[in-house]
């Protein structure tokens, strides 16, 4: 091992301070700067994507994102028409006796057969199921269709022991006494027409013509009623008659954006001029319409409107057993027309030209080479 003497170190320092030494240090410095610059450019390229693979070179190399499968389904085009939400079957209840009204139900209350409609002099008037009004006192020995109607109604309430027929027997009278005890009437075994009111089903109190404490008399109005079923009335234009038939299922858009389904219960056969909101004809120039009634299958909670405008969706056209995808899966091809991006089993993506058919409910009917049920297509987000 050699030991540098002070003289040797001095010679090296002198050599570095010489022009040749300064040149060597300058070369080292330049090389260092170049290497730093190359490193910086490489880092910038990584950030900006310089030098990466061409994004269009292999679309199957990256994940396709959101996808959907081609489905075999039925598509339906719908036409929206105006309707009015309410209660059907309007009617009026009239008094059958002279006396003071001692009880009335609240407005909007739905009363089922067997329930109490109102009271006069403390005696209840019961709602019974039937199509004909009571017109005479029924007692043992009476015969007729009104006897059969009453016995049928009494049987539906759970009272038995008699035969439902046209004859009022002792067995009928015995069942009547049990019913009278239950509702709070004198147990006479006879049926006073002032104590019963017949209707085809449940009724809803839509208005009252008297107040508790006021006197009433036979045939005086007591209250107005509707059926207990929510429904929609549609004044349908005559030219749209072919869009609806009795028994059709329809969708109804309720106030506030709620949805309900309904069944068409009747389609009018008499054309008339559309009426204004006050119930009078528009005075000329209005549409010719027919009345369509829809019974709602179910009404979402919170829909308490007695009357309100609604929209009813009627099927105007449909296609069955077709292949369909979300409309968002369609892409416009450079040469015109439409295509979809099909995802293969390896995750690659290939654009396939397709023919489009019906557009409905956010879906579109398609057909094309390789398009079949279950084919996976890209749906851009």
Automatic annotation (TrEMBL):
Keyword Membrane belongs to the record: yes
Ranges of biased composition (kind: Polar residues): 1-11, 216-228
InterPro entries noted in UniProt: Peptidoglycan-bd-like, PGBD-like_sf, PGBDSf
Region described as Disordered: spans on this chain: 1-21, 54-83, 209-232
Gene Ontology terms for molecular function: efflux transmembrane transporter activity
Keyword Transmembrane carried by entry: yes
Keyword list, A-Z: Membrane, Transmembrane, Transmembrane helix
Pfam entry (one): PG_binding_1
Domain of life: Bacteria
Transmembrane segments: 28-50
Residue ranges occupied by any Peptidoglycan binding-like domain in the UniProt entry: 144-194
An example Gene Ontology CC term for this record: efflux pump complex
Identification of the protein by name: Peptidoglycan-binding protein
